[in-house]
Specification:
By secondary structure, the chain is mainly beta. It has one domain: Beta Barrel (Porin), CATH 2.40.160.40. The chain is 5% helix and 59% strand. It contains one helix and 17 strands. The strands form two sheets. The protein has a twelve-stranded antiparallel β-barrel. The model is unreliable at 1-25 (pLDDT under 50).
Length: 276
């Protein structure tokens, strides 16, 4: 039986399958938003832990995330979090706010050795946690996030860009919580391209920006709320077949918070993913 010839369209097809099939080969950033979606009927189970410190305040959230590929371009998912919070004199823990999310990839372009795509996403974070604890485990409101993301992947190079707008609902006491704008620029490199059956490592560097509008009550601005923060975030994405590990640290490089607010000292995230 003759061995099939290697032509450019075959190489392109194999790459497209490796980027979009049931493996964990296709990537998303650690902190930012990427356009990758699951294949039709695919299931992704993830354990996601995020922690951070700002002055005397510490916050850790661990959640189970379930994502399902409704079609080859549309995914649905849910996250069930557990949260730990502490400040100078108080500590609380318990179930966090349940969230539901969806992502639709509306554009994809495959060419020899590379793939580009773009997606829109929507996430709703419901008011299910205990907001009466001190410090509170929830926000006392339902928030929504609308996002737009772009991604480029090749055998060696990666890049992503995303923008997200978070509309925060009104909290207890008639406080109109300020909305938030999130911007992410990410680059990645695979130093040693590997095969599907071999461990694969991609190193990432992210620039993450946050702008938060000030809170208000009865149309009056509340002091010590709102401002900007920027982070430089090195990270790693390690995969072996259908199992993946994502990890990264956000290092603050610029902060312009209004009034007297604790600036972020660091943030870190670790995600374990299993694609089925």
């Amino acid at each position: 039986m003759p061995f099939p010839s290697i032509t450019p369209w075959r190489v392109s097809l194999l790459l497209a399958l490796s980027l979009s099939g049931g493996s964990a080969t296709a990537h998303n950033p650690v902190f930012g938003l990427g356009p990758h979606v699951l294949y039709k009927g695919g299931l992704d189970i993830a354990l996601d832990t995020a922690t951070g410190r700002a002055g005397s305040q510490r916050d850790t959230r661990t959640g189970f995330e379930f994502t399902y590929g409704l079609t080859g371009n549309w995914t649905l998912g849910a996250e069930l979090p557990y949260r730990f919070r502490s400040d100078q004199s108080n500590r609380s823990e318990g179930a966090g706010d349940l969230s539901l999310f969806t992502k639709y990839r509306f554009w994809r372009h495959d060419s020899l050795g590379q793939q580009s795509s773009a997606a829109v996403s929507l996430k709703a974070i419901f008011d299910t946690a205990d907001s009466d604890r001190r410090p509170p485990l929830g926000k006392g409101a339902t928030d929504t996030l609308l996002g737009l993301s772009y991604g480029y992947e090749s055998r060696r190079w990666y890049r992503w860009a995303s923008i997200r707008y978070r509309h925060n609902g009104s909290g207890p006491g008639g406080i109109d919580r300020g909305d938030r704008l999130l911007v992410d620029l990410v680059g990645g490199i695979r130093p040693n391209p590997s095969g599907y059956l071999e461990p694969d490592t991609v190193w990432l560097l992210e620039l993450n920006g946050e702008h938060t509008w000030a809170d208000s009550r009865a149309g009056q601005r509340i002091a010590n709320t709102g401002g900007q923060q920027w982070f430089l975030s090195p990270g790693i994405f390690w995969t072996l077949r259908n199992f993946a590990v994502k990890a990264g640290v956000q290092i603050p490089v610029h902060s312009n918070l209004d009034g007297d607010q604790p600036e972020a000292d660091y943030r870190a995230r670790l995600t374990l993913e299993w694609h089925m």
